[in-house]
Specification:
By secondary structure, this protein is α/β, with parallel strands linked by helices. The chain has a single domain (4-166), classed as HybD-like (Rossmann fold, 3-Layer(aba) Sandwich). It has helices at residues 20-30, 45-51, 77-82, 84-87, 91-104, 132-152; strands spanning 4-10, 36-40, 54-63, 72-75, 112-119, 164-166. It has a six-stranded mixed beta sheet with strand order 2-1-3-5-4-6, with helices on both faces. Helix 1 (20-30) links the parallel strand 1 and strand 2. Helix 1 packs across helix 6. Belongs to the peptidase A31 family. Pfam families: HycI (PF01750). This is Hydrogenase maturation protease. Keywords: Aspartyl protease, Hydrolase, Protease. GO terms for molecular function: aspartic-type endopeptidase activity; enzyme activator activity.
Length: 168
């Protein structure tokens, strides 16, 4: 029986705002979050391998969807295929990866996958310093994930859909 939770941060740890997902995971690890954490550098099949066998997966990635820098969007797997703006982002590769997992390993994929996207300001500089907008969004996402993991204890997971934007 699947009982594990995993938080996956996606990004390049050396590329300005693209490192947001990696930093979220690092901060959660420092705070001792009671679930497994993983960092991956691409949205390929490695993501699918990291979430198989879990009942809840939370995936954090940077995005460029044309929103205000530091905007946070929470989407479900289905939203990646039905929201026009997400189809044009690199998140479509993540969606394809997850959909492939559900087709190939339906019994091993999480019932609850949350995808948190942080709108970047700058991703061209090789630096470990994020923009202030993205830094603030990372703080919000860390707190949100801590709440998601705590809520996991309160009831059974369910697959979610419907994009949600947050105000900081």
């Amino acid at each position: 029986m699947q009982t594990q939770c995993v938080v996956i941060g996606i990004g390049n740890p050396y590329l300005q705002d693209d490192r947001a997902g990696v930093v979220v995971v690092e901060r959660l690890e420092q705070e001792g979050i009671p679930c497994r954490t993983e960092v991956v550098f691409t949205v390929g099949f490695e993501v699918m391998d990291k979430i198989r066998g879990c009942d809840q997966a939370i995936i954090v990635d940077a995005c460029m969807l044309g929103n205000e820098p530091g905007s946070i969007l929470e989407v479900g797997v289905d939203d990646i295929f039905t929201t026009h703006a997400l189809v044009n982002s690199h998140a479509v590769t993540l969606g394809t990866t997850l959909k492939t997992g559900y087709v190939c390993f339906p019994e091993e994929m999480p019932a609850d996958i949350r995808i948190l996207l942080i709108e970047v300001k700058e991703i061209k500089e090789f630096t470990q310093q994020m923009s202030s907008e993205v830094e603030a969004a990372v703080d919000v996402v860390v707190e949100r994930i801590k709440g998601m993991v705590a809520a996991r204890e309160a009831g059974p997971p369910s697959r979610t859909s419907g994009a949600t934007a947050w105000e900081q």
